[in-house]
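Run: sequence + heme C -> complex structure.
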Amino acid sequence: MRRRIALTVTVLVLVAAGVAVMVARRAARQSSETAATVAAGKAIYQAQCAVCHGDRGNGKGSIAYLLSPRPRDFTRAVFKFRSTPSGELPTDADLLRTLDNGVPGTSMPSWAQLTDAERRAVIAHIKTFSNEWKERTPAAPIAIGKAPSCASLTDRGAQVYVKAGCAKCHGEGGKGDGPSSTTLKDDRGDPIRAYDFTHGGRMKGGSKLEDIYRTFSTGLSGTPMPAYQGSYPDEDLWALACFVQELGKSGAPPPAPSRELVIAREQLPPSVTPDDTIFDRATPATVLLRALYARDAAPDAAEVRAVSDGKRLAVRVEWRDSSQDARPLRIEDFRDGVALEFPLQQGEGAAERSFYGMGMHSGPVNIWHWKADWQLELSSQIAGKATAVRAGAVGNAMAAAKRSSPIEDLNAIGPGSLTPQPAAEQNVSGTGAWRDGRWRVVFVRDIETRYGGDADLRTAGKLAVAVWDGSARDRDGQKSVSEWLPYRFDGVKN
Ligand code: HEC
Ligand code: HEC
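>> structure
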């Protein structure tokens, strides 16, 4: 009997020892995997994220000064979009969701083009910026049941909305204009706006019913948006989500981005105008625009159409802008503008993957910048009214006198490196027209050029769009930008 016990104990000890070795091996393997993952994540982070979030994750990247809201400071380990209770760290699934969707209405783009492994690696790197990730583990996500049918719940949701005091910040009609809305600040002291629910389908935390339920249940840490989990019966909370989603249906639905721009093959007239019917025969492509400095009424999309006869390329960009701003001569006036940007090195590669450039980042780029005031100056010159240009703007008028196009042809290799091409190489022509709250601007250039700084238009490539709204005080880096839009010539496979 005693021997049997001794034997059993020995066996158990051996088994335990074996298990311990296995566990230790697995841990070693995991930690070396983790080190490699973090290193890969660091490389992605430095290339794609640091320009906004900063090399050291403190939110102070080189273009952060242009951005509102400011990029997240990862050293503080405070995250808005969580399935975990208020004040807790997010789960990896939460962070992956944020990378997939980006943060709509802000400069934070979607990173859906990274592979799953790349996204996980960059998340591992983000976690190195704060010890919180070593000291704590994310709490369990809150339970989110199955979303009910909203048919009979919306009215009840409207009552909960009033009872819970949502209107205090979000306003009675949900337009983000409640009595407290003008005084709200986030925990870094920056002004913050309560979401306008009538602007449906563009919620930062996601716009599906489950997303809305999760967002107001767990709250948005670091902002005045409270967590309502447990404050009301579950059915009331679902009813609230139904009501909030319903409010979103009153406005225009979010635009859907196109995957590519197909350049139609058409005869081009000698001078192409914005309303030319050749553009009616080209398939429109939609690019989403992100206002780097978030505000109401920023254009959220632009339509791009392109036509080529094999010798020249004509691209038309159209976007919504309720006012026509072309008077740059007074300091307080800002002008409307639009730019197309082409990477100089097309083809696959790390620089290609970078989301958008506008000389912010990525490799060298060629930028065609149409300026409403340049066009006005040109047209007044043509009408012989150059002398009517206000006194004090003589320098401006002189510069304008040398111009033959309202479009400036530039190069850039990063923030602050914008350089106009030499006068002899200014070879982009075009014109813009504003009507009924929309700008249409045409850019035309020869396909073949001799200058090394010119975009190579002979084959398929990518372009990005930027838009400046003068009445919203946009200028220089303060603008709305798109991500890269791949283009190809009709009938030609990449
Ligand atoms: C163009 C600037 C920009 C770039 C580039 C950028 N971000 Fe962001 N990011 C932001 C801004 C701005 C916010 C804050 C949005 C807000 O508070 O509503 C943000 C927020 C975040 C958050 C916080 C989500 C939360 O729950 O609070 C994460 C995580 C994040 N970014 C990860 C990344 C990663 C990873 C990359 C690179 C792959 C990246 N970002 C690149 C601007 C950027
Ligand atoms: C004290 C002010 C305040 C109150 C009260 C408040 N909110 Fe908010 N809410 C905010 C702010 C500020 C934001 C925007 C946070 C951001 O953009 O980072 C927000 C954002 C949201 C969002 C997220 C939208 C998105 O972009 O994902 C939802 C959903 C929401 N609130 C629902 C509610 C509901 C429902 C109630 C009432 C139960 C409520 N809020 C009460 C201030 C408030």
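>> summary
The pocket of heme C (ligand 2) is lined by residues 80, 164-166, 168-170, 180, 184, 192, 194-195, 203-205, 212, 215-216, 220, 223-226, 228, 240, 244 (CB under 6 Å). The two ends are 80 Å apart (CA to CA).
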